[in-house]
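Data availability excerpt. The first of two example chains:
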Amino acid sequence: MRPALPSLNALRAFEAAGRLGSFKEAAAELHVTHGAISQQVRLLEAWLGASLFERHNRRVVLTPAARAYLAEIGPLFDRLAQATARYGLSETVSRTLTVNAPATFTLRWLVPRLERFRVLHPDVEVRIETSNEPVESLKDTHDIVIRGGPDTFYGYAMRPFLEEERLPVCSPALLRRLPLRTPEDMQRHTLLHTSSLPRVWPDWLAQVDLPALTPAAVLTFDHFYLTLQAAVDGMGIAMGPTALVADDLAAGRLVAPFDGPRLPSRSYCTYVADDKADDDVIVLFRSWLEREGEAFASEHEG
């Protein structure tokens, strides 16, 4: 019988971190999070019964024993890559990843960024389906479910990746016709509602001490993406989630007539069944989403 071996993922994390001298750089090379590298190294240390790194500020230094271990296993990874190339096989098996997400989020945030994932991982085919079905009902048909949160579902691992707030938005052409200098001016405008979000306008008007304001008209849509499109087309004012209207604001298709107040909103989270949470491709996509969320937050600070 062959002797027992530690996890290949743990060995890859150790080899990359040891070679690069940094958990952060190892995470970037392997397209996972810093925490995933730390976890895999801890698993390997537990399996070996020995410490592998000494932590020094932002760098990590191999222990003498770990340095010798790395010298042995490093060439093995090189040989594995060479053997894979020699026999015409890719290092990763082509995979299909099924993702279920809300339609408006998919259209306005996920799809414009998805090409970046495809370029990084051309061997992974991502299939997107949109719905608002309960998370638990999608366990057998989807690898990752994106919903608001954070919520807790038995048998699921949840990770947030994108935060947002809500504020009034409208088209520049509408403002030219009917200027909005103060919230009271909204009594001359049409307020755009979504039937599934009945509280957003009353909550915002309460924040500006205008709970009894009566607008000139009200239009209600059954899908949120229709509400936002109506705002782009100059039909009225919508309560826009910052993450989903950022591209329209940047392009000038929408404007935000007031800086505040902003209503807090639920975060976007990934929900994955516990028995799939360690799947390499699922970890890859979740980590990519988290990096995209961090980049979005950094770009739109303040």
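And the second chain:
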Amino acid sequence: MSKVAVLGTLDTKGEEFLYVKEIIEGEGLETIVIDAGVMGEPYFEAEIKKDMVAKAGGESIENLIEKSDRGYSMEVMSNGAAKVVEELYEAGDIAGIISLGGSAGTTIGTTAMKKLPVGIPKVMVSTLASGDTRPYVGTKDITMMYSVVDILGANSLSANILANAAFAVAGMVKGKKPEPKEKRPLIAATMFGVTTPCVEKAREYLEENGYEVIVFHATGTGGKAMENLIEEGFIAGVLDLTTTELCDELVGGVLSAGPDRLEAAAKNSVPQVVSTGALDMVNFGPIDSLPEEFKARNIYKHNPTVTLMRTNLEENKELAEIMAKKLNQSTGKTALVLPLKGVSMIDAEGQPFHGAEEDQVLFDTLREKIDQDKVELIEKELHINDEEFALSVAKKLIELMENN
């Protein structure tokens, strides 16, 4: 039977980890405890001791104790725990993981959890779970549970919280997973509110033709998650119609997916159809959070928490150059489809971001920079949300996948 990994610092939180371990085992599951503590003696004996974790992280536990450098120790033990957990999973020894901690424990626990595939139960009880969890969760399905109180002993309040976490991971591991439907090729698509009509129509057509489509919201994390799943080999084809995260990375908006966005499919020979959806906008928070330097620009208050800024001529030129450079790395079949009558719902005649000149610079630069020996360039006298455009990109992706 695969076990539940119980990962944490047994020198500082051993009582709590023992409590969680016993509840999981009371549910009929086996556990394997991984000790990531450094300085003190463990509260109880782990199957994988701290010297083994330190060694996996590239150091000896004796050196860590001698250095007495908390930051360095945390880095070593995080890396070591991640390597140990990855090896246990690859050997078929664990089917889920739970950890508890404050800032150090959360870093160690979630660093290891990120090494496990999507779908493997991951529960992190953390004093930080009520704040910004993006640095810890990243693009993985880590369940963050707020500890409410500091994790220091199993008192009358914390015991209930820790028990809930233990029952949660046990239930996830024991639960009967739904029977998979007929396996169909998996397509990744990107969408924003302003490209929804296009993506919905394309998804409908693809699913009618035997494909399964998963849609990623282009909010930074969504793009990162898609790129990761492409790299991990889950995705058979990509319908990357909404490349707006490139704008935020270039200009400094709040929804950047990082510098590697739009590269995974190209580098991994995954067939892709790409478009320029929502390259007319950069995303910021509430309007009063807009940087001073942008306040004279074309601004659109999307809702109380989201403010959009129209990309200008210079930015559109740069975006096209960035996009062309990334797509020109393609080792597989790639098509770039340009919607010449507008790239978003609010980039159309009479709409607040309609920008014929900006779009022209974007399209002209793409025409100039795209290597058409590697990328098929297709132009449509259509708006991105026109039904005809949506069907054309869906059909093109099917063609590329069938001929791959």
